[in-house]
């Protein structure tokens, strides 16, 4: 590692967050850890291993390739592919005992054909679209057609039935579910009645899990909360898992009237001490943070000056004494009494914390503590 630009992942914080969720729900309810998109940027294999160490046996990914990667790295237990079952992925998913998402008779028959060819069963979860309007069956007629297809395909084994809530993270003022979420859950129960009642059901994402830990589902799907960002207020002591640090590579004084960076859209109104930091949008630091973003140096906030460049960013250190080349810069995380989290960066960039965590480029090394 020739630059000091690196991401630090606290695996014990991951384990802590899983334990909090597991203890929050009834003992009979399983916790499915959502680790898609490289574990929300934290490392899919490392996250799965950490969760496995504290008892997790159910995982969710977005695409079959992620599930295969987990199997190749020794991850056991159930791995659900949340994306739709496709002809290109069907055989490989069956070969690696991945649970696939189905919601049409064609998908069920496709998996039956591949399962017979491979002499294995195909595991599936049935997806019900109750108002997200992304993927899933939507009507009683569609549900009945899928149920009929399952009865005709003995090698396709339902292992779950689920839906996804669109606005569970926007509760009412008293903390209760909003009307739309209540409608979705009502619709889920109506459509779910078309299928074998013994099939395990799950509808609770991170938000619903925190809002209603006692519900009539067999499993909850915990995603962003496992990485330290509960989407609704909670008293549970979740810990952020990721921090991002780099260094100062140059310090100079800019005089009043001089401009800084591309487009000359910042002009110093007075003599200003400027530090150049080894990070840019080529590393995944959002260019949209150019106006309003800050970084931590020597435990103090340093405002970004001008536009974030591809590989470097300039910050104002006029009010921070003795800043020097080599000083550590915290982009995400804590330094002294100050902290910048992904939600704050998301506000600067007009996005969401999920995208902030996922945006860090592969050229920034991930270092893991707590193995």
Q: What tags apply to this protein structure?
A:
single chain, 371 residues, alpha/beta, 8-stranded parallel beta barrel, 6-stranded antiparallel beta barrel, 19 strands, 26% strand
Detailed description of the structure:
With 371 residues, this protein is an alpha/beta fold. It contains eleven helices and 19 strands. The strands form three sheets. An eight-stranded parallel β-barrel has the order 2-3-4-5-6-7-8-9, surrounded by five helices. Strands 10-13-16-15-14-17 form a six-stranded antiparallel barrel. Strand 7 (156-162), helix 8 (179-192) and strand 8 (201-204) form a beta-alpha-beta unit. The protein starts with 5 loop residues before the first strand and ends with a strand.
Provide a compact summary of the structure.
The chain has helices at residues 11-24, 36-40, 44-53, 64-72, 87-95, 105-118, 140-152, 179-192, 206-211, 342-349, 353-358; strands at residues 6-10, 30-34, 58-61, 78-84, 99-102, 122-127, 156-162, 201-204, 219-222, 242-254, 259-260, 266-267, 272-277, 294-297, 300-305, 313-316, 328-335, 338-340, 366-369. The protein has 371 residues and is of the alpha/beta class.
